[in-house]
Amino acid sequence: MLKTEELQINIGPQHPSTHGVFRMLVTVDGETLVDLKPVFGYLHRNHEQLGEVNTYLQNMPFTDRLDYFNSMVNNHAYARTIETLAGVEVPERAQYIRVIMDELSRILNHATAMGFMLGDMGAWQTALLWGMREREKILDMFEYVSGARMMCNYCRFGGVVRDIDDWFITELKKLMQGLPHYFDDFEGLLLNSEILLARARNIGVLPKELALAYSVTGPVLRGSGVAYDIRKAEPYAVYDRFKFKVPVGTVGDVYDRFLVRIAEMRESYKILEQALEQLPDATGGFINPKVKQQSLKAPAGEAYARVESPKGELGFYVVSDGSGSAYRYKVRAPSFINLSALADMCKGYTIADVVVILGSIDIVMGEVDR
Amino acid sequence: MADALTQLGFASWLSVLIASIIKVTLILVGGSVGMMFLTWYERRSISYMQDRRGPNRVGPQGLLQPISEAIKTMTKEDATPRDADKIVHFLAPVVMLGATVLSFAVIPWGRMFPVDLNAAVLFVIATGGLHSIGMMMAGWGSNNKFALLGGMRGVAQLISYEIPQVMAIIPVVLMTGSMSLQKIVEAQNDFAGLGWYVFSPVGLLGFALFFTASLAEGERTPFDIPEADSEIIAGYMTEYSGMKFAVFYLSNYMSNLAVCFITATLYLGGGNGPGVDALGGIAGGLLSLIYFLLKSFALFFVMVLIRATVPRLRVDQLMSFAWKFLLPLVLVNILSASFWVALLRWDQQWPKLTEWFGAPSTADATNWGRLAIAIVLTLLINAGAVALIMRLTNRNVQKHLYTTDEELALGLS
């Protein structure tokens, strides 16, 4: 009697396409995947415990290291939580600056994430390096305003640490002139490629109900056909003043997530345009001068605030006992929760699909393991 | 060459020996140096496609980069896994390289032939098939699951793509009436050196099919599945390091080079081109070599362009592409090739044809009426077949994405 034997393979923790130290214990029958067990924790560095020891301000740079692609968004989410907890007013101009940084982060994150996904698919890095080129320009802008390219540590309670000046605005406008060309190039490169369609269509399908059950958020959820975007559902900062659309997929496969991310980059571009237009009229300074940053004390209580990070809903939950540091500190990391749906998305597909599906979820291990 | 040496006063056995040694040295050196240049060429071209510079520090324009890398790999530690089958593990790269170098024996460098076998086409195919043995040895001997998967994938891929590749050559053999690469090159010398097969409908389809199948044979994107680095690390090469890895690398690039050479010979007229016959002698030979290398590197540039652009296929898609797309088209192409040959040359069985359209073409004179009919007929057959197959495999393009600007709380409506 002929029979096949199942083979157990460790993909990771050292593997070219696990996006960090992530391990998948994969059982395959030939090339077909029978079972997948995600194993993580290799990058655990006690982030949440540290958050309970540090003062509120000391913890701000630590949030940079969560999703190291989007430190601006992490700062924003953390600052919002503490502002909610301590009841701090944020001036309008600071809100606009935060929104500009968030949307720039979204563009750079999606550009590189889709590049990495195409790289996992086997396209020899052209899409990735085109994305990296745009990312590099945006990182230069971040460096100018915050002093660091990736670990920005830019937000403060009640605003941001430094104002943006005219040079920044002119450079940003120059940068934005190039962005639509990049979007078009990126779409034109592979969007209708027969091979990409074959590799991405109906692969890694995550049905709507399952996505909701796993409480998946971000482009993965929108790819599955749920129009849920915190910028619309619970407009924070000044997002209610912009006109933008929420792109939504229909099938929930890799291709949908790919399309959603490209469309989101275009929407972010629209938001940036409007924000730059409205910025001169914004009232207030870049920071609320009344807030004592170093010795901020929050009244006893709890707060949860969330923002739409490029990867999904990023929330911070902080319990205060009235002292200068958090009593309990918890991060709702989108990568971690989106990753929990991986095994269900991968079953029945082949090994080659697994890396592509993982790439389409867009994880950062710094956020998963904390 | 041996004759020339005998005339110089060498004993006949000695002149044969010396001539062989010179030829072997030229093949080995030409192949390896060509491969070194090829890596530089590929890296530089891909860099410019990706908005960066590529290797440009070592030597002028980075031309010495491959040499520095060769020295680096040679001085690296040569590690063998503890539980590997030591002998098989050691022999696998040797087998791979040996198979590749063998195919260089019959490749015509322009009009200069190292060896003129009368069944050179078969020889090339046979040596190409030897690769799968090396791959399987590497995959099995390494005692690594990724290597095993890569080896299995490689063998399955090579075996599937041998068939369309071999059958894509049949039209060329039919049209030439010979399997010798020299004869094939000579047969494409009409029209002032521009009578290449690629300019006929049969040759054009055959060229496209052969080149596509050869991409799979040479493990180039989009068929680089056996060494898919994002899935199975490096496939069958995972457990190799240092010199053994370099030998695999060398063999891969040399086989890619060989594929370009063979394609240029079979379909692009080899060293033929305007002015080669007029010059004649050594100058003509050099010009033909230049033409030949230009064509080959243009083909390699196409490979580089594909590599820089498209993702790779999945294993099952690769198989269905070979069996459902390439193979039917190859069979149709053989049919139209036989029509072509029947119309142009062989009509003794059907004298009416001669009555209507005049005598068949000879080497000296072309029968234009017959040529026109052959072109129209084969073009119709081939274009029809391609259109039909494209239509059969075409998937409906459904509209995926929609956008909304409503403010949805949870979108559960």
Automatic annotation (TrEMBL), chain B:
It is a multi-pass membrane protein. The keyword Transmembrane helix applies. The chain crosses the membrane at residues 12-41, 87-107, 119-142, 154-174, 194-216, 246-269, 289-310, 322-343, 371-390. Its EC number is 7.1.1.-. The keyword tRNA processing does not apply. It catalyses: a quinone + NADH + 5 H(+)(in) = a quinol + NAD(+) + 4 H(+)(out). It is found in: Cell membrane; Membrane. It holds the Pfam family NADHdh. It comes from the Bacteria. GO terms for biological process: aerobic respiration. Keywords: Cell membrane, Membrane, NAD, Quinone, Translocase, Transmembrane, Transmembrane helix, Ubiquinone. InterPro entries: NADH_UbQ_OxRdtase_su1/FPO (IPR001694). GO terms for molecular function: NADH dehydrogenase activity; oxidoreductase activity, acting on NAD(P)H, quinone or similar compound as acceptor; quinone binding. One of its GO terms (cellular component) is plasma membrane. NDH-1 is composed of 14 different subunits. Subunits NuoA, H, J, K, L, M, N constitute the membrane sector of the complex. NDH-1 shuttles electrons from NADH, via FMN and iron-sulfur (Fe-S) centers, to quinones in the respiratory chain. The immediate electron acceptor for the enzyme in this species is believed to be ubiquinone. Couples the redox reaction to proton translocation (for every two electrons transferred, four hydrogen ions are translocated across the cytoplasmic membrane), and thus conserves the redox energy in a proton gradient. This subunit may bind ubiquinone. Belongs to the complex I subunit 1 family. This is NADH-quinone oxidoreductase subunit H. It comes from Herpetosiphon geysericola. The lineage of its organism: Bacteria, Bacillati, Chloroflexota, Chloroflexia, Herpetosiphonales. The gene is nuoH.
